[in-house]
Design a protein that fits this description.
Number of helices: 17
Distance between the termini: 64 Å
Bound molecules: flavin-adenine dinucleotide
Strand content: 15-25%
Number of domains: 3
Shape: globular
CATH class of the largest domain: Alpha Beta
Largest sheet: 6 strands, antiparallel
CATH superfamily of the largest domain: FAD/NAD(P)-binding domain
CATH architecture of the largest domain: 3-Layer(bba) Sandwich
CATH topology of the largest domain: FAD/NAD(P)-binding domain
InterPro entries: FAD/NAD-bd_sf, Flavin-dep_Halogenase_NPB
Length: 493
């Protein structure tokens, strides 16, 4: 059995501890945030998680993640439900008038509604029951312990983590799960290791506020998509656990005026009240805010490469998992699912190759390239299309459009951006409202159950969407998802 040292006890680090710990390996998690285990979900919501500030923002836990827990860790899924999380069954939310009788495969289309702090709290509580897992919190990692490369061709091997109190945690394998803000290249360069990095800004800033339903109040009936894109503003409502929910509004990084308004807690509610999908949620007799407005900028898509051009590891004995390896635009809600999937990939490569560091690294990076990287590419493609659309005021696209746009652009680089948007707006979106085959195909892709380009490689789905697209002149105009920017700013002034 291996001794594994993990930097960071966020979702990825905890996922590694779960997968490797249950396989009998000895795991030590080192977490800089001083967060003793909370006694309840309510207390976990107050955790001081400076190292992972996104816990103060809306999180969706997609069906891919829920199915992974259902199939490999049913006790964890049960514990989440016991803590107040709820299943989100997409089939029960199919558009009004569509047959909701379950079909084979529909049992997989269930996500988890839960606050991020509740998710992490349950994950941590469950993992700390594993006899082979230990967590040190309130202690930062400041360096790596390495056997330096012995000549020009050799590769440095990491043998543990150096902590801020000067102690060293020796390990057979070191896992970096420090999240999107941790400086992994800096940590490695001190040992002479240079990794490859690709970065593309998402172009947005997140504004989130949490609410709780008032006693006796219920969630409003859902009559349309709970997320969308007005071109200049993205919006989404995220059901949480224990009658909580959150609203996220995301503005362009360059839109100073809107960003200023969104930071104000009262204006945040006034703006949410202007958007049909969020308006009923913020009615004063339905809900009350339980936080101020949380803001997060610097949201990058980023991918790191740990193999050289000939496919050989740049460093041995070290892996990166979760956002430390690949992070994507939070808008698409994929990060936690991908982090847990990648933690499983790590455990699989460990099972197959044990302490053969070179073979394990090649296998892990290969599996990551197949399972994780396509979602990075989809995220970047989607963001580029969204950036093209931000000049369109009150654009009719919604989250579904943009996700499908990314699939299109990935699948068919020859399709022009505007043509793709038109096809999605006048084809895919209306088809999703009426065609159960198309909406299921979209939901499976959206929930990471199929590849990002799966819609465009499915000839049946393409034919159905094309039929709807060709009928576009005969349909009434799309219903507006909200005001244009000028009207919104006027309404809140
Ligand atoms: C605004 C926002 C909204 C998001 N919404 C969603 C969503 O809806 N659905 C979804 O699935 N994903 C979402 N994500 C992505 C998701 O939060 C991340 O993908 C996920 O947290 C990745 O987990 P991680 O463990 O890699 O990183 P993190 O969860 O960030 O954890 C990293 C940990 O490492 C610790 N650490 C850092 N440096 C050190 C050090 N030197 N020593 C010791 N410890 C250290 C930190 O304190 C932290 O606890 C969102 C992200 C953002 C930014």
């Amino acid at each position: 059995m291996a001794k594994i040292a993990v930097l960071g006890a966020g979702v990825a680090g905890l996922g590694v501890a779960l997968a490797a710990g249950r396989a009998g390996h000895e795991v030590v998690l080192i977490e800089r945030d001083d967060t003793p285990l909370a006694v309840s979900a309510a207390e976990a919501f107050d955790w001081d998680r400076q190292g992972a500030p996104q816990v103060r923002h809306s999180h969706a836990f997609l069906a891919r993640l829920r199915n992974l827990l259902r199939d490999r860790y049913p006790d964890l899924l049960e514990a989440l439900y016991a803590a107040g999380a709820t299943p989100m069954d997409f089939i029960s939310m199919l558009p009004e008038g569509m047959d909701r009788t379950p079909l084979p495969g529909d049992e997989d289309l269930v996500a988890i509604a839960c606050r991020r702090t509740t998710f992490e709290w349950v994950l941590r509580k469950t993992i700390l029951n594993e006899p082979s897992v230990r967590l040190v919190h309130g202690m930062g990692v400041t360096g790596l312990q390495t056997n330096p490369a012995s000549d020009r061709t050799a590769v440095a091997q990491v043998t543990g983590l150096r902590l801020e109190d000067g102690t060293v945690v020796q390990a057979d394998i070191t896992v970096i799960a420090g999240g999107r803000r941790h400086d992994l290249p800096g940590l490695l360069s001190a040992s002479g290791v240079v990794i490859r990095e690709t970065i593309e800004d998402t172009g947005i800033v997140y504004f989130s506020r949490f609410f709780r339903l008032r006693e006796g109040a219920e969630f409003p009936a859902q009559t349309g998509p709970i997320g969308g894109d007005l071109g200049y503003l993205k919006f989404g409502v995220f059901p949480g656990d224990n009658r909580s929910f959150s609203i996220t509004l995301a503005a362009g990084v360059t839109d100073r005026e809107l960003r200023r308004q969104l930071t104000d807690p009262d204006q945040f509610i006034t703006i949410a009240a202007q958007i049909p999908a969020t308006a009923a949620h913020v009615e004063v007799d339905r809900s009350q805010p339980i936080t101020g407005v949380n803001v997060m900028a610097g949201l990058l898509n980023r991918r790191r490469g740990f193999l050289d051009e000939s496919g050989e590891p740049l460093v041995l004995g070290l892996h990166a998992v979760g956002d430390a390896h690949t992070c994507t635009n939070p808008l698409y809600g994929r990060g936690c699912s991908l982090a847990l999937v990648q933690a499983e990939l790590f455990a699989d490569s460990l099972k197959e190759h044990g302490l053969k560091h070179r073979d394990r690294a090649v296998a892990f990076e290969g599996a990551t390239r197949d399972e994780i990287t396509p979602w990075y590419r989809a995220s970047v493609a989607q963001d580029r299309l969204n950036a093209d659309s931000t000049t369109v005021q009150n654009g009719p696209a919604d989250a579904a459009t943009s996700t499908a746009d990314a699939a299109t652009s990935t699948a068919d680089a020859a399709t022009s951006t505007s043509g793709a948007r038109e096809f999605m707006r006048d084809g895919l979106l209306p088809a999703m409202r009426t065609d159960p085959v198309v909406v299921r195909a979209f939901l499976r892709m959206f929930n990471l159950l199929e590849a990002p380009n799966s819609l465009m490689t499915n000839s049946d789905v393409v034919a159905r969407v094309l039929t709807v697209f060709n009928d576009r002149e005969n349909r009434p105009a799309e219903v507006s998802m909200g005001p244009d920017r000028a009207s919104l700013l006027e309404a809140i002034s």
